[in-house]
Amino acid sequence: MGKIAVAAIVSIWVIPVSILVNRIVPDPYMDEIFHIPQAQQYCNGNFRSWDPMITTPPGLYYLSLVHVAALFPGKYFLQLASSFPEVCSTAVLRSVNGVLAVLCSILVYEIITHLRPALDDRKATLFAAVLALYPLHWFFTFLYYTDVASLTAVLAMYLACLKKKYLFSALLGAVAVLIRQTNIIWMLFVACSGVIDITMAHQRDYMEVDNLKTSNKSTGLSTFNTNVNVSSNLRKRKSRGNAEANKHSFYWTNTSSTARTSGLLHEIQAIVLTSWHIKWMLLVSFSPFFFVLLAFVAFLIWNGSVVLGAKEAHAVSPHFAQIMYFSFISALLAAPLHFTRGHALDLFQSFWKNRLLGFFLGFLALIAGLLSVHFFSIAHPYLLADNRHYTFYLWRKIIKLHWSMKYLLVPFYVYSWFSIFHLLDKTQRRIWGLVHFLATSAVLVPAPLIEFRYYTIPFYLFMLHAGTNDGRSWLLMGVLYTVLNVFTMRMFLFRPFHWDHEAGVQRFIW
């Protein structure tokens, strides 16, 4: 029932807003001027045609062919189209993301209920609906961009891995990479999450076996009885079902405080040692991910770059300030979780418990943040010249307001990252938080252009594991997202403007 409710709720706004967007903006806009003609070439069977300005692989176009093929019989029967290429209109191609947005919301619901089986169904539905309103995801639901398809493929891959369907997960990973190259990082993240889960589950089994043997020895039971009890115990563990298994494997409870306080280094050591003992099982389970990685490496060698086209404008750069921007934007878009008196006090108390280490890490983070914005803050030519993007105004009106402004913002960046880690530390192993940070950095740091839509996947993965049960906070986020979505869509549709040096209508966009 929950999945149907989520799909229905998301469809309530996807359908009418899509109609409105296609009525007011019927022609391709911004990056659509590259993507839509390319997809239409594929609809015509011209698979060798390629626009050199397109930077991403053709995964979205193949998904569009499936979507068009599903619609063609009905349109042909109703005499709305006489040939397959006629169906590939701008509106139909945009509707691909509408369908994927509904599917994405269902995947979010499935992941939430999988990670948190004890969560009330109404809250899970609320959480999934609110995340579907996330502004960067919501806005591009109505345009023909790769963002919605990319997020959907990554979440599907992650859900399959959570359910221990590793081959299927790797296949979905290949689809995700075919949509956007940087998803190779998220595929590796998913594989690492799976390894962490398996190794920790095995370590827990070994600890239970050792504890049971010790207990039996102290009570004088025989070795035969011990082995019977161990086997029975392990059989019971396997028969508990996915809900109970995942509650222990992926979602920390208060009873696991010993493991949590043991520290990051202890977790890394435990995972390395356990991985060595079960190396063959891990190799068999995760070898499909390795083959996808090999294929990606072969692509890099063949292509000579991560991006396909416009390589000069998307050259890899050491843009370390990007992860600072991500933390602050993500915290702002989840403000009811990060910027409350209770949360700030809780974060301060966690530092105060180990003052020396806490303040040393805070000082180190401040120094790293200052160095990042001073030496590794990149002003891409597109950022400086294109006033259709909100980042253009944020850069000029805030960051460049005064020479000191970029340094004054560093404490907010640092607070945001510590807040993210603090929320994750309540529900996840520290090594999971580290892997999430490294994956986020690997995706964002090489990107020279500040694009908030690049933040969508790491934001979703954080929110899915933040573990807050406060329905009020989620409702406040829903209100915040709705206000932002109404504002950005109103600006896009009803506040067009013109450039003196170029013909055509220009519109504001993320």
TrEMBL record:
Where is this protein chiefly located?
Answer: endoplasmic reticulum
Query: What topology in the membrane does the UniProt record assign?
Result: Multi-pass membrane protein
InterPro entries, sorted: Alg10 (IPR016900)
Pathway this chain belongs to: Protein modification; protein glycosylation
The entry's cellular-component GO terms read: endoplasmic reticulum membrane
Swiss-Prot/TrEMBL GO biological process terms: dolichol-linked oligosaccharide biosynthetic process
Alphabetically list the UniProt keywords: Endoplasmic reticulum, Glycosyltransferase, Membrane, Transferase, Transmembrane, Transmembrane helix
GO MF annotation terms: dolichyl pyrophosphate Glc2Man9GlcNAc2 alpha-1,2-glucosyltransferase activity
Is Transmembrane helix tagged as a keyword? yes
Cited function: Dol-P-Glc:Glc(2)Man(9)GlcNAc(2)-PP-Dol alpha-1,2-glucosyltransferase that operates in the biosynthetic pathway of dolichol-linked oligosaccharides, the glycan precursors employed in protein asparagine (N)-glycosylation. The assembly of dolichol-linked oligosaccharides begins on the cytosolic side of the endoplasmic reticulum membrane and finishes in its lumen. The sequential addition of sugars to dolichol pyrophosphate produces dolichol-linked oligosaccharides containing fourteen sugars, including two GlcNAcs, nine mannoses and three glucoses.
What family is it from? Belongs to the ALG10 glucosyltransferase family.
* Entry protein name: Dol-P-Glc:Glc(2)Man(9)GlcNAc(2)-PP-Dol alpha-1,2-glucosyltransferase
Organism per entry: Durio zibethinus (Durian)
Name the lineage: Eukaryota, Viridiplantae, Streptophyta, Embryophyta, Tracheophyta
